[in-house]
Amino acid sequence: MPSIRAPATKKTTTLTVAVKCRPLTERERGRDIVRVNNNKDVYERSISSTIAGVIQGLNATVFAYGSTGSGKTYSMVGTQDDPGLMVLSLHTIFDLIKKDNSSDIFEVSCSYLEVYNEVIYDLLEKSAGHLELREDPEQGIVVAGLRCIKVKSADKILELLNSGNSRRKTESTGANETSSRSHAVLEITVTRKQRNKYSNQIIRGKLALVDLAGSERASETNSGGQKLRDGANINRSLLALANCINALRKQQKKGLAYVPYRNSKLTRILKDGLSGNSQTVMIATISPANSQYHHTVNTLKYADRAKEIKTHIQKNIGTIDIHMSDYQRMIDSLQIEVCRLKKELAEKESRLSAKPTEKTVDAELSWLNILSQETSENVQERINLQKALFELEETNLRNRSELQHLDDAIAKQQAIEKDGAVVQALGARRQVVLDNIRDNDELGVNYQKEIEANEKRRCQLQDMIEEAISNNGNKTYLRILSQYRLLKNIGTIDIHMSDYQRMIDSLQIEVCRLKKELAEKESRLSAKPTEKTVDAELSWLNILSQETSENVQERINLQKALFELEETNLRNRSELQHLDDAIAKQQAIEKDGAVVQALGARRQVVLDNIRDNDELGVNYQKEIEANEKRRCQLQDMIEEAISNNGNKTYLRILSQYRLLGMANTELQFEMAMRDQIIYNQREAQRNLWNLLMSLGLDEKQVLELAAKQGIAIEDWTRTPYQGLSDRRHSQNVDCQSITPLSYGPYIGQSYARSSWIFQQNQDFGARSFSLGNWKLPLTFCREEHHNSYYYRSQDHSSSAYLRLRSSEQWVSGRPSSQFGTPDQYPHKLRNSCPQMRTQFPPYGEGCMSTLSFSADFGQQQKEAWTNAMRQPLHEGSLVGTSGSQDSCKGIIMCHGRSTPGLFEYSSLDQGSSLLSSNQVFRNPIPPNHSDVPWLLASYSTSRPTSFSSCGIKSHPS
Ligand SMILES: Nc1ncnc2c1ncn2[C@@H]1O[C@H](COP(=O)(O)OP(=O)(O)OP(=O)(O)O)[C@@H](O)[C@H]1O
Fold it and tell me: Could you tell me which residue ranges the Kinesin motor domain spans (predicted)?
């Protein structure tokens, strides 16, 4: 598959925001409260030019944002008579392609999906299952397995769009008769191949048209059961989108802020549209009805923020590169092909090499046959010659015997015969016999010569056979064959013993060679599975490491999101407080109550947001817990993978190395978070100092006051928080590794995250309380970078250093806990437990209530204080406890309240444990109470049921 790599030139552009106000519907019986000053057609102004860019290879995203029933689906999909943006865009695309004068080839394809209850479905596939999102290094977020259909005309896409819409989940709710319960994304891809210029160049533009489900309040939609759950999911993903918009805005303004795209499928899909390579248009849809006022304001608020989001568009022009996965596929298929060819080649080669051998063997065989045949003929000839010679010799033996008889007969006849006629006849016969003998002797010599020639030929044939055998690999076989043949042919001719010996020797050599070869093959065969096992374990370990890394990333994201959520709620609560004050003031002065009503409405919105955020926070917390569980599982699986493999040491080191890398990432994240917390603390502190100054106190007075209260000024002036002396931010946040959280002048500082810290120290209160002998004043400290928490007593007395809890040592998989001995000062504690790491704890009850008590607290007071601290805190309520008569007063300051009027404190009557806000001093230290012990506490306004930090000051005496 060819892919396009975008060229380097980028253009930064801001998100275009258009607001569309629908007319009042028949169901709405209310006032039209929206006045549209500059009524223009949204499509002509904002969308058509963006779509023209898609033809030129740019990416574009258009999404409708608004509350339920505000007209998102109407704007995006529309009706037969009033087609929506999806339809109009498609027509524009095909019109532009039609009008294009170039000879370029266009290809249009589209996909259509919906995200319903955080699950992705293909709307172009009838009974499609769940689809997953994948992050591709080049293409960004892709939906794996999503059908992408090539289309030739707008009508065809409209057909698909209609069938897709019919599959989309809609419901009738109290707010909208056809309320979309899912987010729908239509993606149109235009690929343009430039035929004439560079044959290998293509341009590809993408247009994503998104119809979101609408945010809703359960009360408005009158929904329950599944609908309610759908609504919660819709709200959740829209909140995730809103959080992304907020974070992107922050990013633009302050250059920081993590953007929590991963919090929902919707935001992951829209990631490119919100911050990547995309020209993006947001259609903010609003209803004109007065009943929808809050939604309208909310939508406009986000629309206003979205205006500032910047994206970086670039033309997707490039040579047709091969995608990495395509490369991989090609490599794979080539490797398979190479393997196949090699095999084929080997086969062919073996056949080729076999053929010559066969040929040679055959040739040799036929040659051997010839030789054997010749040898056989030679042998036969020899036998014949020997037979003929034998007969010849026999004949001559007979001839010589007859000659002897004839010579004897002639001698006898010559003595008795007178005329010599018989002697003459006997003499003639004698001559014939003599001629025969002579002829036969001559023939015998010839036979002998022939026998000699035959013998010579036989030797030649034998040499030729030897040669044929020595030129061929199959020596043994041929030798045996030839020997056999020779034996067969020669019959009685025996094979010489040395031949047998040669045969046996060569066979033994051959056997040895074959055994060696076999052993080699076997060792190779047995080596292969071992390699495979190590490879398999390594790739399994890779998978587990990858999953662990994703798990860590997810956890970081969740914690970041939680952090941001808390911050948002802090602001919300602060706003709520302002609103309450403003309402109280207005109620006193206003006659018709219009402003009070508006403020009340706003108050409701803020309260809703707080509730939503709190719910989401709980969900995040659950996800963090699930994430932690998964992490433990992964760790176990890694351990198992290591223990199941022979290469344990190597695998263990590898896995430790990887896990340590991830732990490092987490620690870096924690440090970043703490920097943020420190930044917040400084802000709060600055506000506090400003407040004190604005109350008419100068630095000297404040210092005197602090001294009177037994606050060691040096302690905090030495810290990075320079207070009056130096209000600039100090870069040195470490301060000998100790950062006070809440001590004396730090009361009231905005320490939003401290509640996290206390959650993991559930056993903390009980332990510190049981010690009982601590001297006050106390400082609650934490050791930077190692997240150990301990108390520091100013007298550094015995048991002054108490490690509250060390977190589990994740890498080794074994938990450990340790309490410091009196001589274990922070640096020693740190050194003694170098592998400590943080686990951000879940929300829960704060446990600072049993923090510690001064020596003059009686058991009754302790209990009263403990009870008081366990009481839920509400806006404006004050909590404290009494000491012995006139010996203890309480002060409580809510952090997050930065204006003077919002600081509250109260003296406490003996025996009272929960105070109302009726005793409010406008001066931080009431003069007539300056000589008594103080309870100093701050609590997070975002968590009314828990204290985030507090401390107790004893009487200076
Ligand atoms: N511009 C418009 N002209 C006429 N009627 C409109 C217009 N916009 C919306 N409507 C009507 O308002 C009602 C709600 O619109 P729509 O379903 O598009 O809202 P929605 O924002 O998509 O809601 P939900 O989020 O619940 O899906 C519908 O009856 C629709 O026909």
Answer: 1-309
